[in-house]
TrEMBL record, chains A, B:
PROSITE patterns reported in the protein's UniProt record: FAD_PCMH
Keyword S-adenosyl-L-methionine: no
Pfam short name (any one): FAD-oxidase_C
Alphabetical UniProt keywords: FAD, Flavoprotein, Oxidoreductase
Single biological process term from Gene Ontology: respiratory electron transport chain
Chain ranges passing through the membrane: none
Lineage: Bacteria, Pseudomonadati, Pseudomonadota, Alphaproteobacteria, Rhodobacterales
SUPFAM superfamilies, per the entry: FAD-binding/transporter-associated domain-like, FAD-linked oxidases, C-terminal domain
Stretch forming the signal peptide: none
UniProt xrefs under Gene3D superfamilies: 3.30.465.10, 3.30.70.2190, 3.30.70.2740, Uridine Diphospho-n-acetylenolpyruvylglucosamine Reductase, domain 2, Vanillyl-alcohol Oxidase, Chain A, domain 4
Name the UniProt record assigns to this protein: Putative FAD-linked oxidoreductase
Cofactor: FAD
Residue ranges occupied by any FAD-binding PCMH-type domain in the UniProt entry: 35-215
């Protein structure tokens, strides 16, 4: 691929000097060091016109572009692996252009950090519900490009469900101006949903109109000990039968994660000790959610769906409960996973997956599994760790076999091997292996039609042409 | 375009005789007689393989295909205007393949009538919320192809938001097998959202996995007299502040519609008489929605947002209230509209639109306006009628000028001239006039890439090539 240097003089002539920045290592390499760019040119544009100028010049010269948000992606979508791209970082397009509580809409530039969207919405007495571990650094452009998920998908949907409109620069440099907050607009194909989840391969998102929700009048959380993952699902359905949409989050937590927490983050209080399986339930509704949780607990015990439980008596306790769930990824990092899997299966097969999956590793070796996640979405983080006394380095050569064994099972059960983190560069082969052939052909046709020179984030999602 | 007769012998040889049906006039002409096909071949396939056979043969021969659902479309998308297509009616693919209350998913073939989906969901104690006037005859394939809206979009979204997966035949005859019920799946571009709303121009939907919701534990409805459309919006926000997502529907009703009802459908009871503006509010929530409506009414009166109101005391009364709203289209037909407009504007401009729109007709003549609709979505049906003593025929020559004047205003206010009924063949020129140029170019590229011969519903959404 033509290196960025081929277009650098033209871009330096066309753009103000301030947009050119040092290409620090974080733009070249992702945290785990799996994908490494050979170099390139970093540009942090200030507005959509500058983005258009960059894309137009690169399209003309055939120079690849890699869009860069918060750099928190877990699948290498933000790294121009093996080539020298123009890296377009959205860090300076970080304005919240408007917050409109009547419209229930907020217009954010692609570089706005998720946390800042939360805060701006709250100031207008509204909720932007998307919540992920990386919310302190992930930026809206990347969140939409990867269709991020998180703990509130159960109630509010994925990133795409929270996006009303987009402004984006298409691969020919033209500007799609679609920041309308309209709730009903059937005027033509939905390009918004095509760009969301395309991971920068069909265009570069520069701003978005985000959907705000009412803030639930009252919130409450509880942790219940459940006898099994199947019981957790029954409990979720019981909860929904009793309070309808009021269930905001419903997270499954396996014992292994709690053990990791006890060992590596002992400051995190474990209100129920270390049960084999527990769930964190969060309700937000008009009325008395704490009473609803008490009623739910009684009904669950009656049905054998829970054996113990704690209901947060204050917002502080609610925060403590969430700290358990949200600290698990940090504990995982402290232990060091051999292989991490972001998978989803149909809800009806979730318990069977949890039951069957450990056995697929038997031919490879002995491991510890930390299984936790968004059980209401059928989305599990099923992470494989060495047994005590061994390290992840000991299992470097097992990683591909582990991934293949787990993904084969997921696929056999009708699931997805790229649930909420995207395909990036990490799962291109998986997509080729497991994807629907008609879908892949159509994807390649669309990519070739919109980006005939293949300059937009080449190698992400689809193999570079 | 090559007529259907060119491919008929091959299709008769490849398919069972039973799938060929008489091409009755309803397949050739839509209710208002604006679009008329010159003839063609009607096929009602029994399964997706037969659909694939049809599409493959037509692609080879360059024969146009028009998909046909319930025939209730209001923009001519279902009529092969001026040519002789193969009409593929989905009427025999009308099975509900599965209903799964754990998955909260229902798999329906494209020919299933909406009402039947409602009933199947209710039998499983679940809700499929999409509700439109034509639900007794509209079929799921058409509902998704047009991304239908209706009265519950406020709470549950448009058709696209209720679709988890699709099975479809693409323009080359390949079968997209994507009926997964997964809530989180980021494995590649979202072709589902591209096909939904494409009105059959990018492929033919043969089945869908639909998203079911919990049935709200309790429901209640009320009608309030409001001083203005602006007050109606304030009332909606007040309602949402008080009960969160519990507001299922919020419909604005103008006096003209009530007058039409009194004149043409006197059996419909008008609980509040004929106020200038009124709203129908429907709540569904855990707890006591009737009490919530009483509290809302008191708070609304206090704030000057309502002057009178009735709260349904029984499910029968609730049904009566809804009969008012749902009978307005029938009353409109009895009067005979000169021009009907399915438009949306940002919520913040809705009141201004209602205020300013009548004046744009002044240069054309004197008319009566019936304005009603889904105010929470910014979606109005703004229909123009002759004054008493004149008929719609008297205004035949005014129709284009009226449409242009109304649509210009909508566009100026940042709205959409195709809110929930689609583009079809009726609004192709509007899309060209008002659409974002980058979007139109991208749409044409995608159409050419996926359907290079232009056989899928040519002339709908985009001008036939």
């Amino acid at each position: 691929m033509t290196p960025a240097s081929a277009v650098e003089p033209a871009l330096r002539a066309a753009l103000p000097a301030a947009v050119f920045r040092d290409l620090e290592s974080r733009y070249l390499e992702e945290p785990r060091g799996r994908f490494i760019a050979r170099g390139g040119l970093l540009i942090a544009p200030e507005n959509v016109e500058q983005v258009s100028t960059i894309v137009r010049a690169c399209a003309e010269a055939g120079v690849p572009i890699v869009p860069y948000g918060g750099g928190t992606g877990l699948v290498g979508g933000q790294i121009g692996d093996g080539f020298e791209p123009v890296v377009v970082s959205m860090e300076r397009m970080a304005a919240i252009r408007s917050v409109d509580p009547v419209e229930n809409a907020l217009v954010a530039e692609a570089g706005v950090i998720l946390q800042n969207v939360h805060e701006a919405a709250a100031e207008a007495d509204r909720l932007f519900p998307l919540t992920i571990a990386a919310q302190g650094s992930a930026r809206i452009g990347g969140i939409l490009a990867t269709n991020a998920g998180g703990v509130n998908v159960l109630r509010y949907g994925n990133a795409r469900d929270l996006c009303l409109g987009l402004e984006a620069v298409l691969p020919d440099g033209s500007v799609l101006r679609g920041l309308s907050p309209l709730r009903k607009d059937n005027a033509g194909y939905d390009l918004r949903h095509l760009l969301v989840g395309a991971e920068g391969t069909l265009g570069l998102i520069t701003a978005a109109t985000l959907k705000l929700h009412p803030r639930p009048p009252a919130r409450a959380a509880a942790m219940f000990v459940v006898p099994s993952p199947a019981a957790a699902l029954d409990l979720l359905n019981l909860a929904r039968d009793r309070v309808g949409e009021g269930v905001s989050a419903f997270e499954l937590i396996g014992r292994q994660g709690l053990e990791f927490l006890a060992e590596h983050l002992p400051q995190v209080r474990l209100p129920l000790g270390q049960p084999e399986w527990s769930v964190l339930v969060d309700l937000g509704l008009a009325g008395d959610p704490q009473a609803a949780l008490e009623g739910l607990f009684e009904a669950a015990v009656e049905r054998g769906l829970a054996s113990d439980g704690v209901i947060a008596q204050s917002e502080g306790q609610r925060t403590d409960f969430w700290a358990v769930r949200e600290s698990i990824p940090a504990a995982n990092r402290a232990v060091g996973a051999v292989s991490s899997h972001d998978i989803s299966v149909p809800l009806g097969k979730l318990a069977a997956f949890i039951d069957r999956a450990p056995a697929v590793l038997d031919p490879i070796g002995r491991f510890r599994i930390n299984c936790f996640g968004h059980v209401g979405d059928g989305n599990l983080h099923w992470n494989v760790f060495p047994v005590p006394g061994r390290t992840r380095e000991d299992h470097q050569d097992d990683r591909d076999a582990i991934k293949r064994a787990v993904h084969d099972l997921v696929h056999d059960m009708g699931g997805s091997v790229a649930a909420e983190h995207g395909v990036g560069r990490l799962k291109v082969e998986d997509l080729e292996r497991y994807g629907d052939p008609a879908k892949l052909t159509a994807m390649r046709s669309i990519k070739a039609a919109l980006d005939p020179k293949g300059i937009m984030n080449p190698g992400a999602v689809l193999r570079a042409g």
